[in-house]
Write a structure and sequence with these properties.
The complex is a heterodimer.
Chain A (H helix, E strand, L loop, with lengths): L5 H23 L4 H9 L3 E3 L4 E5 L5 E3 H14 L3 E4 L5 E6 L1 H12 L17 E2 L14 H11 L14 E4 L13 E7 L5 E7 L12 E7 L3 H15 L10 H8 L1 H16 L7 H9 L19 H10 E3 L5 E6 L10 E3 H14 L3 E4 L5 E7 L3 H10 L14 E2 L14 H10 L3 H7 L4 E4 L13 E8 L2 E8 L11 E2 L6 H18 L6 H8 L2 H8 L5
Parallel strand pairs in A: 6-7, 7-8, 16-17, 17-18
Antiparallel strand pairs in A: 1-2, 2-5, 3-14, 4-5, 4-13, 8-9, 9-10, 11-12, 12-15, 14-15, 18-19, 19-20
Helix pairs in contact in A: 1-2, 1-4, 3-4, 3-11, 6-8, 7-8, 13-15, 15-17
Chain B lengths: L1 E6 L6 E4 L4 E2 L12 H10 L4 E11 L2 E4 L2 H8 L9 H5 L4
Antiparallel strand pairs in B: 1-2, 1-4, 2-3, 4-5
Classes of the chains: A alpha+beta, B alpha+beta.
Chain lengths: 548, 94
């Protein structure tokens, strides 16, 4: 894991004290809310429905047990004993007091954490594959590059006031576990025919009001030119991105309006200039960063056999565990989606349990996934039963990864000031409707995602089944869409028809899935069947007697 | 009826204009009349409220009930965590 050097620590400490002064000035009346708001947002502090909300950055979703324990400590000391893991691999607290905010950031700084780049029109916290460094299908670990981009982007003077927020994801494998093509910039590590490491660069993806899958802008960017190329990408956006219309300010609109070819031409032209500025770090610096992400000492002769005699353990094993690239080891995903639970929420006690498991069994590493789960990336197969037992005791052993109940949901109208409708109650009802695990497994991979407004924090556009909450004359109404994907086969879902009430949408989801069961070909996921047959059979089933 | 609401500057709590001050309980809220926005602006200048605005509500048996679901949730707490927010205090949970 990356460790702060003296410069990192000094910057974060200075930022805390700067924010402390800003909070004091706000509390004393020296600053109005209009003056204070952009400053607090630069430090992750929002004012939400019930209280201030603090969003803590987890760079590329990687953290250690010390940091995880700190998150639990803050939940207990300053909040209401829980935290919410988000679709940007961050964590949010929902009940923060303004006069505690600087103290919280000071406590976070003691474990190399902060809330920088979690809000505002800057380059946001960079996300990455949660299996980075452990995945068997990986070309290279994307995290050293994500860290390099973090250092480049943090407090970058040119890019602190972009036309709109800017999100980057980095992956190192063919399987896209980070929804890379739905980011402002998506980067995929690969090797060319000569064996050299580089990136595919996708620019102009995103969700929100105008969802788009990013087009490929560069099919091979040498890895050691990453910073220069992204500098060029951002400069073109910063110059020509629209600042006159909030809804057209994201880079996806610029790329769409001028076309990928013209955007590429402008970037390449700027790139030629930027390269003369020697912004890319020397190889030694990248090597220094990469060394901190070295694979922990894993014994490839560790036993690979697992005792599956406990049937509940075997179920969990089949659903939550995948092979590590080192024999005898595995990657564990801890579900934060119990039946009837709140997706992504974890109590302080549960956060502590996961931290302890990481320290004991996963070389002190955890990952937050964009699907609001937690990963232990480096565990011995021989330890899996002990891990499962501890998870089971803490209500963390739900075996539903990528099944219908592994729902992504934004906080929705229960917490969010921007939301039009609640998301969480739908997730709870759907998990209760499909609580039977045999039924879930029979349905196979179904990625259901719920957003409480068009900003799409719940990634509904990328759901095999997507649900969008809207306000219809003061009442919550839910639009249903099918066919989205955030994976390597990225696509944007299409609305199936008129919206539903809260109960009606759950019935509609069930009818869609029963229709799928009736017409699927062996081996087809729901998404595959939908892509093969289109929406007609589903529409017919859903709207025949739907409670619209 | 019209109510004035906003958030407490320090705690961020949802608060309601009572005619002479602010309360976390909507049952204490009073009709703001035509001066609701002016009341909010005056109180915000004095740092007794953050981001005040006027909402529509109806009279209910236990006091005002906002017409919009968003304001009803603000007045009570998250519908998915009845142990949190004003609703929990009313039930003696918090």
């Amino acid at each position: 894991m990356y460790k702060y050097d003296e410069y990192d620590q000094a910057m974060v400490d200075a930022r805390v004290e700067e924010f402390r002064d800003q909070c004091n000035r706000r509390l004393s009346g020296e600053m109005t809310e209009d003056q204070f708001k952009p400053l607090r947002l630069m430090n992750g502090l929002y004012l939400q429905l019930h209280a201030y909300m603090l969003r803590v950055a987890v760079p590329y979703g990687t953290l250690d047990s010390r940091q995880m324990h700190m998150l639990a400590h803050i939940a207990r000391k300053y909040d209401r004993g829980y935290g919410h893991f988000t679709t940007r691999q961050n964590l949010q607290y929902n009940w923060i007091k303004l006069d505690d905010a600087a103290d919280i950031l000071a406590e976070l700084a003691t474990v190399e954490m902060h809330a920088i780049q979690t809000s505002g029109n800057c380059i946001r916290n960079i996300s990455a594959d949660q299996y980075a460094g452990a995945a068997a299908d990986e070309v290279a670990d994307p995290r050293p590059y994500a860290e390099l981009l973090r250092q480049w982007s943090t407090f970058h003077p040119e890019f602190l006031m972009l036309p709109r927020k800017f999100k980057i994801a980095v992956i190192g494998a063919d399987e896209d576990r980070a929804a890379m093509k739905l980011h402002d910039i998506g980067l995929k590590l690969l090797k060319n025919a000569a064996g050299e490491l580089g990136f595919e660069v996708y620019v102009g993806g995103g969700q929100g009001r105008t969802p788009m899958v990013a087009p490929l802008i560069r099919d091979f960017l040498p890895a050691d030119e990453l910073v220069s190329y992204l500098e060029a990408c951002l400069r073109v956006y910063n110059r020509y991105g629209r600042r006159d219309n909030l809804y057209k300010a994201r880079i996806k609109i610029l790329v769409h309006e001028i076309g990928a070819d013209e955007y590429r031409r402008q970037v390449e032209e700027e790139f030629l200039h930027v390269k003369t500025l020697a912004l890319d770090p020397p190889a030694a610096e990248l090597e220094r960063i990469a060394a901190m992400f070295a694979l922990p000492p894993l014994d490839p002769t560790a036993p690979a056999e697992i005792d599956r005699s406990d049937p509940d353990f075997a179920l969990w094993l089949d659903q939550q565990v995948v092979d590590h690239k080192v024999p005898g080891h595995a990657i564990v995903t801890i579900s934060l989606k119990p039946t009837g639970g709140i997706p992504g929420d974890a109590s302080a006690d549960q956060i502590d349990v996961m931290a302890k498991l990481a320290r004991e069994f996963s070389h002190d590493e955890l990952r937050v996934t964009h699907a609001q789960n937690i990963v232990l990336p480096h565990v011995r197969k021989a330890d899996l039963y002990a891990i499962w037992t501890r998870l089971e005791e803490s209500g963390l052993a739900t075996p539903n990864l990528d099944l219908i109940t592994d729902i992504i949901a934004c906080p929705g109208l229960d917490y969010c000031a921007l939301a039009n409708a609640r998301s969480i109650p739908l997730a709870q009802k759907i998990t209760e409707r499909f609580a039977n695990l045999d039924r879930q497994r029979d349905l196979g991979e179904v990625k259901l995602k719920i957003s409480g407004c068009i900003n799409a924090c719940g990634h509904h556009h990328a759901g095999h089944i997507g649900i969008l909450g809207v306000d219809r004359k003061g009442e919550e109404n839910y639009q249903l869409s099918f066919g989205g994907s955030g994976a390597e086969d990225a696509s944007v879902g299409k609305i199936i028809g008129p919206g539903f009430s809260e109960d009606g949408i759950v019935d509609a989801v069930e009818k869609a899935l029963e229709t799928y069961r009736g017409i699927r070909i062996e081996g087809e996921r729901f998404l595959d069947t939908y892509r093969r047959v289109g929406s007609d059979p589903f529409k017919a089933a859903i709207y025949e007697k739907a409670s619209v | 009826m019209k109510l004035v609401t906003g958030n407490d500057l320090v705690s961020g709590d949802v608060i309601w204009w009572t005619g002479s001050g602010w309360s976390r309980f909507i049952a204490d809220a009073v009709e703001a009349g035509p001066d609701g926005e002016a009341t909010g602006a005056r109180e915000e200048a004095a740092r007794r409220v953050n981001g005040p605005y006027v909402v529509e509500a109806a009279d209910g048996p236990l006091g005002p009930v906002p017409l919009h679901i968003k304001e009803r949730i603000r007045a009570s707490g998250p519908t998915v965590r009845l142990d949190l927010g004003v609703q929990a205090e009313k039930q003696g949970i918090a």
